Amino acid sequence: MPKFQKGDIPRVLINNAVSFLGLNLSSELTLNGFDVTSKQDGRPFDFLVYLNDPLLEPLDAVGRFKEFLDVAVSVGSPLVLVTALIPNPTDIFIEQLLQDRHEYPQWSIVRLPQILGPEAPSESLGILGHFLISAKKGLDIVVPSDGLSKIPYLNYYDAVSFLVKLLTTVPLPHQQTFKVLPAEILSELEIAYLIKSLVKNTNLKVVFGSDNAETLDNLNAGTVTLSSTIPLRESLREMLNSVPFERPVMTTPPEKRPVLNRLPPPPATTSISPRPIFKRTLPLVTLGVILAALLFFIVYPLGKTAYFGYFGKQHLEKSIGAVSSLDFNLGAIESYAAESDLEIATASLNSLPNVAFLSSPKKFMRGGSLVASALYHINIAALPFTKPVASYKEIIDAIGKMQTAVGEINLAAASFKGSNTDYEKTIAAYLPNLTLVGNSLPLVPSLLGYDTPKTYLILFQNPMELRATGGFIGSYAKVTFSMGKMSALTFDDIYNPDGQLLLKNLAAPVPPEMKSAFPAMKQLFMRDSNFWVSFPTSAKTISDLYTLATAEKIDGVAALDLSFVGKLLDVTGPLYLGTYDETIGSNNLFERTQYHSEGNYFEGSPQKKNFLQLLGNKLLEKLASLSTADKIKILPVLASSLSEKHLMLATFDSSQQILAENKWDGRLEATSNTDALLIVDTNTGGNKANYWVQQGANYEVKNTYRQGSLEGFLTINYTNTSKAGSWPSGDYADYVRVYVPKDTFLNDASTEIMPGLDTAPTKPIISVGTESGFTVFGYNFILAAGSNLTLKLHYTLPKELNLFDSSKNYNLRLIKQPGVDGEPFSFKFNKPFGKTLSVPVGFKTDGDSVVFNTLLKTDQYLQIPLN
């Protein structure tokens, strides 16, 4: 960072996009053989300033800035980017490009409002520019809507003064965004009358139209208000005086929707005669004028709209077809053409009066234009992924384009909502996958090792021996990524690193919360370390133990189960394993994996490792060889597996935040003012009895006291359908944990086992603890083959859930255990004392109660309105 002595003037290079400032300060910018030294004495420039030109086409603006940014990075001078205070999509994209250049920290962003200056082109000034043009031509000033929207404008001198002050601040603020506001902000109506007063044309009128003006967004942190600005009156006076006024002529004002049938004011020397009595017959000349006006103001815009709307629709449909067939080059061309045509059609349609019969075409034009723009960004973003490996720069560009596309598709969905058109249905079909891609792309650079090589553990969990995060960890894989490529993949038996822990006497002590589940356990090994249902907690424990055993650093952990692998096999089709002369598909995956992994297994046997290595390699080969169309089918598999917790990811860097935001890491976090319920089973018997165990739960909530306290009555039913007592089936040993809101008080518990010598309910020993902000009730039991067990818990929910407040609703968060496949669940809510119930969607009534039944495949949030 250069430091200046008192009186020094920093050397600043400003790119040539400064026309909207009305200045002439720029040096010539040539990117080929670019010279960043001053032409006067050859000394380097201290700062680079880039002012985005709002009159440039978006692609040209982005391309120009990317070139300028590459130069700035190469020379290392601090860069100040100047964009609009109310940024358009191009400004937002350019700012993101700057922020994503992690190797270039020396930057600041300045957001300026629209700039006023004697040379500023009126077409860049929005509604104020229209006001000025109308005033100069002697036409009425048309104020959109009610004219109350406030729009900030800044004099060019004040804008330059702020930039100079910023550049002479030592050190220059790094990676900050400044939003500059003038001290004086007038409404559209105030600006219109201010211009009228400056023009001093008594015939000039201020009238109201129906446009929707651009409004100020929510400006909060980072706003800078300039207190000593040049008054807006002086800026307008300077602009009005810089261009001579035109004589009044009969021309259409430049507003988007011109006011019809307005005659120009008569010349000052013309006398006005009394209005003639209306006659039924009009003079031929008057009729011709009316017909000409009708043709110009109505017929021509409608014809133009129809023409460009038709071709825009054709291009849009071709673009959708190209995307469906994964022809991204053709899709980009067609979507670009569609957007251009639909934008012209929209502008033409907006020039017509705001009448009811045009509302539907306007919605279509707006929605279609947004879809076309989104498709263009999708196609351009997808092109790098058609290659074996995309570069880092291509990934970063694709992230920005996909995030823009997701935003545009959501806006288009709002435009088409309720239209019951094919476009509405197409958007609804594509939006989930598009959102998944848009949310996951920011993870790619870090996860795939573009910054530094990353090594991950992939845990294979068997839900037939159920554990908290999905199942017993019998095997795992270690994979390394570098610059987007998989550089190593090995499969192994979990007992091998556990053996190293035992050999080196490095196994961890058993945590106190595990002793109720595993009273005989003496040391904690990797195979039992997924005890904590919040996956990031278990993942960190497993990673730490692996590092102790091998001295290898782990950057993240993924966990998957047989359900996820089975869904992948449905996409790839069955796999033939020549070594075993077997075909493995989703229908026999569990059976054959269990046979080759566990059958005739002895300590040190490589059979499990060998089988999984072959199966995993074959699956990866098949996935890599799929056509692009078939690879797209993996997206819904990923989406459903992540939401159903058959696949979970945890990393130990900044990417973890993105995983948590999208609920992909299996994190368990408590929420306040909400009832919650999670049932977690841990098979402690060492067999695969969960394959034969059926489970269901019923939960009832009552308000039994006047003071509004709520009580929960939970019933969990287990049925062990095993016919034999031998491994892998047999008796089911389980440690069940029930997670409820913190400070919940357990009133009573009972169990009933059928058949049995004594069918009367017994009092079980329930442990009470806490985890992840929840109160946890734990119970150990053994259920013999062919038996049923019912566990009943009666508890009082915390005071924060009491229904004192007359407007308070009841909320319930149902949380699904990972690895479990759609267990039946029934919920009943009884009418509280002094309240009335509204029946939510999906509920049924049962007297004074409402009932909800489901197969719990994903987390669910229920709300019951109370009055």
C-alpha termini separation: 63 Å
Average pLDDT figure: 80
Q: Please tally the helical runs, counting DSSP H or I stretches of 4 or more residues.
A: 20
> Which parts are unreliable, with pLDDT below 50 for 5 consecutive residues or more?
16-34, 211-221, 243-282
Count all strands and give the number.
Answer: 32
Give the structural class. Answer: alpha/beta
The main sheet orders its strands as 24-27-22-21-29-31-30
Range of helix content: 25-40%
- Tell me the Rg in angstroms: 35 Å
Structural features, described:
By secondary structure, the protein is an alpha/beta fold. Helix content is 34%, strand content 23%. The strands form 8 sheets. It has a 7-stranded mixed β-sheet, with no helix packed on it. Strands 1-2-3-4-8-10 form a 6-stranded parallel β-sheet, sandwiched between helices. The protein has a 6-stranded mixed β-sheet with strand order 25-26-23-20-28-32, with no helix packed on it. The two termini are 63 Å apart. Residues 16-34, 211-221 and 243-282 have low confidence and may be disordered.
